TrEMBL record:
Keywords: Cell inner membrane, Cell membrane, Membrane, Transmembrane, Transmembrane helix, Transport. The gene is yejB. NCBIfam families: PRK15133.1 (NF011712). It is a multi-pass membrane protein. Its main location: membrane. Belongs to the binding-protein-dependent transport system permease family. It is found in: Cell inner membrane; Cell membrane. GO terms for cellular component: plasma membrane. This is Microcin C ABC transporter permease YejB. Gene3D superfamilies: MetI-like. It comes from Methylocystis heyeri.
Amino acid sequence: MGAYIARRLLLMIPTILGIMLVSFVIVQFAPGGPVERVIAQLQGFDMGATSRFSGGGAETGHGGAAQIGQGAEIGSKYRGAQGLDPKFIAELEKQFGFDKPAWERFLLMVKNYAVFDFGRSYFRDESVLKLIGEKLPVSMSLGLWMTLISYSISIPLGIAKAVRDGTRFDAWTSNVIIVGYAIPSFLFAMLLIVLFAGGSFWQIFPLRGLTSDNFDQLSWPARIGDYLWHIALPVLSMTLGAFATQTFLTKNSFLDEIRKQYVMTARMKGLTENRVLYGHVFRNAMLIVIAGFPGAFVHAFLTGSVLIETIFSLDGLGYLSFESIVNRDYPIVFADLYIFALLGLVVNLISDLTYTWIDPRIDFETREV
């Protein structure tokens, strides 16, 4: 097992490099950029969907507003740069690092990222690592709660559906699950807001934030209740789709195992149905369910939380990533990509190790990675 773990860890290096290289190349051909963003601000246009940044490049850009008209650069490579001093444009390029060739910027990024040095945000004038650390607890809360709740419901329900396959219970629960799966999480979130967050009916749950303004003044039991009160609707919205997927995955996995010869043999030996189901079938059927855990967790941690964080005004990592892409804040964009790619690879390795813990017959040592 030690050799397998070492091979997987070594394989992570070229995988991460490949992900970063492809993303870096795509960004080079993407329209717009931080320089164009500052130029648009100077010319009175807002290129992004958000404008909650301060400091950094934005301050430098407005500081150079006085240089408008000092020299025109006809045929500038930046849209809207006509009428700006070429020296000012050069200063912007130097500030954002675009005075260096692309290959040199990529190599510098790889060197810094190897020691988790992500630099500073272009438009927030803060350390990227500090920003990610501030937003991480919100997304972690959403991802962990969604994963725990969806698994704790879908696994027992999937087992019950497999045991009662073809019955009326199996039919009506499948209909409910399919309807739940067909509803997008953001649409369900809007429905919950309309019903329970003061939209048109009842105002039972809060609409903004993860805690109340007086959270620090509350006792510990009151803090727990306040936290659960705020997170109820966002987690419920995110759980809907994952709950449906995991339920059918569990059911199908158990059905495959129940129909195998060893199950019939166990029953013929006189073992009780619970002993057969949970002593023999459960261990084998749960392997495929565990295999889906990394993807479910990473999806909930990033992709699944972007819209939910936006709808419920939760200042988490998902919304930070979206905002950074819109505002062309590349240090945050690449740092988020690097962290989530690394997280996905590590979680997949943990999943493989969990395989061997559940079923010692699985031996990755003899496998080729």
